[in-house]
Amino acid sequence: MKVITKEKKTLFTNLLTQHEKTDKLECLGVYRIKYGSYEQKYIGVTGRKIGLRIKEHQGLCRNMDTKRSEIAEHIARTEHEIDWKSTERLAACGENPRGDRNTDRERSNEQET
After folding, report:
1. 25-29, 57-61, 104-108 — which one is most confidently predicted on average?
2. Burial class (CB in 10 A: 0-12, 13-18, 19+), 72
3. Which of 1-10, 83-92, 103-112 shows the highest mean pLDDT?
4. How far apart, in whole angstroms, are the C-alpha atoms of residue 80 and residue 76?
5. Using CA atoms, how far apart are residues 2 and 14, in angstroms rounded to an integer?
6. 22-36 pLDDT per residue, tens
7. Where are the domains of the chain?
8. Residue 67: how many CA atoms within 13 Å on its side-chain side?
9. What is the pLDDT of residue 36?
10. How buried is 7 (Cβ within 10 angstroms: 0-12 exposed, 13-18 middle, 19+ buried)?
């Protein structure tokens, strides 16, 4: 007699699987961008998807728009390179159903000691 086991799919196991697939930058929250190998870091808070906000930062830096981007201003002043790939989410926040730009707050040149 053969015994055949079948994996039991439950709502709980399904939710865990879906949760693991969520990209950490595809939610709103607090994020950190490193200035290359330097100790300085840029910390921002956004009410929109972090990945979207990072793309906006990248575009402003490409155009060296120092009026609208503290990161572009930092690059112009110091010639540091930005390590975009090391961007990380520090904390996730609740949902912002309106996607309001007015909820974005930024702090730059945060230095860890």
Report:
1. 57-61
2. buried
3. 83-92
4. 8
5. 28
6. 578 888 899 999 987
7. 26-111
8. 0
9. 79
10. exposed
Backbone angles phi, psi at 53, to 5 degrees: -65, -35
Q: At 31, is the secondary structure helix, strand, or coil?
A: strand
Q: How many CB atoms lie within 10 A of CB 43?
A: 16
Element (H, E) at 86: strand 83-92
Look-up of token digits 């969520």: 22
* Nearest one of 32, 40, 50, 44 to 86, comparing CA atoms: 32
Dihedral angle at the C-alpha atoms of 105, 31, 90, 100, nearest 10 degrees? 50
Q: What is the DSSP string of 32-85?
A: EEE-TTSSEEEEEEESS-HHHHHHHHHHHHHTT-TTT-HHHHHHHHH-PPPEEE
Q: Residue 56 corresponds to which amino acid?
A: E
**How far is it, in rounded angstroms, from Cα 19 to Cα 41?**
29
Cα 104 to Cα 47: distance, rounded to the nearest angstrom: 6
